[in-house]
Amino acid sequence: PKVTTATYLDKLNVEQRSAVVHGIDSATTTHIGAPLLVIAGAGSGKTSTLAHRVAHLIVNGVDPRRILLMSFSRRAAAEMIRRAERISVQAMGGKTGAMTDALTWAGTFHGIGARLLRDYAEQIGLDPAFTIHDREDSADLMNLVRHELGFSTTERRFPTKSTCLSIYSRCVNTELSLDDILPTTFPWCSSWEAELQHLFGAYVEAKQRQNVLDYDDLLLYWAQMVSEPALAEDIGGRFDHVLVDEYQDTNRLQSSILLALKPGGRGLTVVGDDAQSIYAFRGATVRNILDFPGAFSPAADIITLEQNYRSTTAILAAANGVIGLAKERFTKNLWSNRTTETLPQLVHVRDDADQARFIVERVLENREAGMTLKQQAVLFRTSHHSGALEVELTRRNIPFVKFGGLKFLDSAHIKDVIAVLRWAENPRDRVAGFRVMQLLPGVGPTSAAKVMDHMQGAADPIGALGDAPTPPRARSDWTHFIETIRTLRSRSAIWPGELELIRRWYEPHLDRMHDDASVRLADLIQLEQIASGYPSRERFLTELTLDPPDATSDQAGVPLLDEDYLNLSTIHSAKGQEFQSVFVLNVVDGCMPSDLGTGQSQEIEEERRLLYVAMTRAKDDLHLMIPQRFFVHGQAAYGDRHVYAARTRFIPNAIVHLFDMTNWPPAVAGPTNAKSIGPVPRIDLSARIRGMWRSGAQNV
Ligand code: ATP
Ligand code: MG
């Protein structure tokens, strides 16, 4: 029997409940009528409502494999699956089986795109064995092409490889042309328009020749694929329901994909918050969510949610104060019934070091008062802002995990091993090949290039390795090298045994290249453990490249689930999450908003929303840190320097009354009596985190 007004929806408020069941025919569980947009403010239960909707569908008999669920990160998607599963298990009296496995089409746009592209590759003239380049690989390839074209000589001040990639990516994601993008977004590169045009053409050709796809291609090809009506129908027909969280951060390609999959909008549900749009710098456009209702006929139905269940009234008032001064009008009216006496705090400290000390003191106090470390988070604009804090945490033996900065994959040794695997998968991938070959002593870029050229023409590129022009010093290692690659190609090792095979080959090189080889070796073993969670080499490579585990993350190690650790995260990576206590670093002009932008007003507005996102992560306590002096690390053009800073312009005098002001340390400082974490033993994991952090920072 179908469950319609079941108890599992009891916890929801009226609007949430109507969003869960909206448009779903209770007899057939198909979506009838108009598509659905849930647009609502932070903490109003958008994600929770979406999870309930998924659960509702499953409980009522929809095949989970016919649900496409897209979220902004793999972590967020996994969390959604977990929640949906919990709800439906409860609803069905604890009887559901392996729903986690069944909701196979939950993930990021990029991850889902990659899987669909492999399924349909041949139909769109793509080789299904393509490899995926992460941003760094893409920048490397851009660099190779730049060199080949002779654009890279330093005296000509041609844009750097990463600037070139940003410009290219911007064109792709906004579907605008170079002469639209350059004057507005990269004005200092305008004089290079002709060269950039040429470069991008050559870059695209190089990708095709090598059968590699970059992140943007995954969306581009996907959009192209579904612009073919027959394919769109076929792919769209695989899913009865398509649901998207954080819709405000999608770009034009993503919205055109959704529209092509579900042209009438039937079965389509998107949720988001226009006030939290923070990815315009990557081509996302808040127009997507605003234009969503009108993209269909009849227009999409809109449900708004107004009660915030996350934050105290004081935190919400402060966050509303900040966003209320925005140029655009966000029409939401958020309220909370979690009243409190405690206002959020603006904490004035002298510098980075004091900022770190203050936070550590408070974190420990919270912990003594019974709040776990996991319930607390320190948020920052860019990854390197947490340097001083990491030092202080390490000194005081407080375990932490950093999200959104260095990724597990970023350390050199992990990249090496992955490159071997990738190259074995696709020997035409020049970036991978370059990296792998240069692991051999005596092989530098020039000889690597010669070998690659030699392979390029051959029908059997790996076969051609045997008589490749190798430098004399490399000869003794060459045979073993070729043997390893051939074994990998032939797949005589069973996944994930392939990684162990590579590790055994790589170990002597690791010893030769790194002093801390044993720490790195432990990481590689860790990598094998991670790999065993993936069904195949190809799935592992795809998902790891698209959304690598953080420097330490839940997936990265089994023990982590039970350990307590402090969350360190960029604001972007904290999207959708919540913590009892939140500290935001460097809430000063120059950092928020950053002085590295072009100073255009849209950019400033995006920074305001960023602060809003940070503040609305907090449930009970919020500290905004204001160092008088903060240290800016070397952006190429700026160098390292101290700057004197003032409270961010987003908190002008008019709204200062919504905060409490603190100066720290207090004017008359007593003897410092550093607390330590007491009964929590120092765990190995944090040593590993630090090891990873160190190795990554030095060697990437
Ligand atoms: P964000 O904009 O930050 O992504 P959101 O709108 O997705 O936020 P959720 O994360 O879904 O909000 O919910 C915020 C918090 O409120 C969660 O802890 C959730 O469990 C809780 N919550 C949501 N709805 C209700 C409800 N009806 N009753 C009690 N708690 C609720
Ligand atoms: Mg959410």
Automatic annotation (TrEMBL):
ATP binds at A40, G41, A42, G43, S44, G45, K46, T47. Residues 19-312 form the UvrD-like helicase ATP-binding domain. Residues 313-576 form the UvrD-like helicase C-terminal domain. It holds the Pfam family UvrD_C. GO terms for molecular function: 3'-5' DNA helicase activity; ATP binding; ATP hydrolysis activity; DNA binding. This is DNA 3'-5' helicase. GO terms for cellular component: cytosol. Belongs to the helicase family. UvrD subfamily. Its EC number is 5.6.2.4. One of its GO terms (biological process) is recombinational repair. Keywords: ATP-binding, Helicase, Hydrolase, Isomerase, Nucleotide-binding, Plasmid. It catalyses: Couples ATP hydrolysis with the unwinding of duplex DNA by translocating in the 3'-5' direction; ATP + H2O = ADP + phosphate + H(+).
